[in-house]
Amino acid sequence: MVPVHIQTLIVSVSPTPSIIVLQPVEDVVQAGKYRIVPIWVGTNEATQMGIALENARFSRPMTHDLFLDALTNLDACVDHVVISDVKGSTFFARLTLRQHGRLIELDARPSDALALAVRQKAPIYIEEHVLEKASYPYVIKASHPNLNDERELADFRRFLEKLAPDDFEG
Question: What's the predicted TM-score (pTM) here?
Answer without folding.
Answer: 0.78
